[in-house]
């Protein structure tokens, strides 16, 4: 069998002759968008989840299995290049960043990751008989796709532990995804979406355009409190969030905790999240909880009802570090 095959030639049925379908790799909104834009070399608020490089072209039978029976991950060589690009964009000045779309514009090889051992896959090539690939998939070829590896990895990051890869690959993959966690974005990047006249100021507090005021002593000034602030204060956000939390019904959070965990739930006093925020006021804001979890190097998981959890942030953060997940409040 050939060492690589187009992703569009893989099927879950030997008789799949239907037209190819498109699968978006970035279908969900995420609070990481601004960080991804910065690390991936984009201008702020320009991320396009429907970009043509965020699409997989697959057969109809593969679409039915795409939610949990297979995934794609970049090769180790591609991961190394991705890591270097993110490091470049993080360490160099804003104007010297490079776009992941232009730097990774070619077709790439990917490792196909079967997630369901009960599924047989077939390679359908024109003029050839279907080639069957069954569990344990030892002879599975690499696949090629025009999808950008950054989009592919973001979509498949939770499946990377199922990939038949080396420890070096896993470490390199973790180094790429760990850079996506919350970190302070440069003010220059955050303010780049605003007109220069709104953010520029001089030492003598003159007008943004540097021109002197008219002879009239009366100057019309727009009150700062008119309308919502584009970036609400963190403390105001947390205060409103805690007040809203006070009226929320409490639910029990059931976790399937391995017996090998050093901190099982029954060893930790149960506290409401509101009490936990009060006890850990040094965290200052809900965002700090998010930042601290990055020390444990995990993936991003949005809980449907984080207010319902009954454990203190200390235990939850430890647990998330074990599971390699982050919590966005």
Low-confidence stretches: 201-208, 212-216, 224-229, 250-329
Major β-sheet, in short? 4 strands, mixed
Number of strands: 11
Run of helices and strands: EEEHEHEHHEEEEHHHHHHHEHE
Helical percent range?
Answer: 25-40%
Please indicate the count of domains.
2
- Please tell me what the overall shape is: elongated
Average predicted local confidence, pLDDT:
70
Determine the strand fraction and express it as a percent band: 5-15%
Structural class: alpha+beta
Give me the side-by-side strand order of the main sheet: 1-9-6-5
Q: How far is it from the N-terminal to the C-terminal residue, by CA?
A: 48 Å
Rg estimate, integer Å: 25 Å
Oligomer: single chain
Total count of helical runs of at least 4 residues = 12
């Amino acid at each position: 069998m050939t060492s690589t095959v187009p992703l569009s030639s893989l099927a879950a049925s030997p008789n799949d002759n239907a037209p190819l379908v498109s699968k978006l790799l970035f279908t969900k909104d995420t609070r990481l968008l601004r960080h991804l834009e910065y690390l991936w070399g984009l201008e702020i608020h320009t991320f396009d989840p429907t970009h043509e490089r965020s699409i997989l072209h697959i057969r109809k039978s593969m679409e039915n299995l795409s939610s949990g029976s297979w995934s794609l991950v970049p090769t180790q060589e591609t991961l190394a290049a991705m890591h270097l690009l993110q490091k470049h964009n993080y360490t160099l000045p804003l104007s010297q960043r490079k776009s992941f779309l232009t730097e990774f514009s070619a077709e790439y090889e990917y490792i196909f990751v079967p997630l369901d051992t009960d599924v047989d896959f077939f390679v359908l090539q024109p003029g050839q008989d279907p080639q069957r690939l069954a569990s344990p998939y030892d002879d599975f070829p690499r696949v090629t796709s025009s999808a950008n590896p950054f989009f592919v990895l973001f979509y498949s990051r939770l499946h990377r532990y199922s990939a038949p890869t080396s420890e070096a690959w896993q470490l390199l993959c973790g180094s790429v995804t760990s850079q996506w966690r919350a970190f302070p974005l440069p003010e220059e990047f955050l303010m780049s979406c605003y007109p220069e006249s709104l953010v520029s100021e001089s030492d003598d507090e003159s007008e943004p355009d540097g021109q002197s005021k008219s002879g009239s002593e009366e100057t019309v000034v727009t009150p700062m409190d008119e309308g919502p602030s584009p970036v609400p204060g963190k403390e105001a956000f947390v205060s409103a969030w805690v007040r809203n939390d006070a009226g929320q019904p409490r639910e029990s959070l059931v976790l399937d905790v391995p017996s090998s965990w050093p901190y099982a739930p029954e060893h930790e006093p149960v506290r409401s999240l509101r009490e936990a925020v009060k006890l850990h006021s040094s965290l200052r804001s809900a965002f700090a909880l998010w930042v601290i979890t990055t020390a444990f190097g995990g993936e991003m998981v949005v809980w449907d009802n984080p207010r319902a959890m009954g454990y203190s942030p200390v235990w939850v953060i430890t647990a998330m570090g074990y599971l390699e997940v982050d919590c966005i409040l």
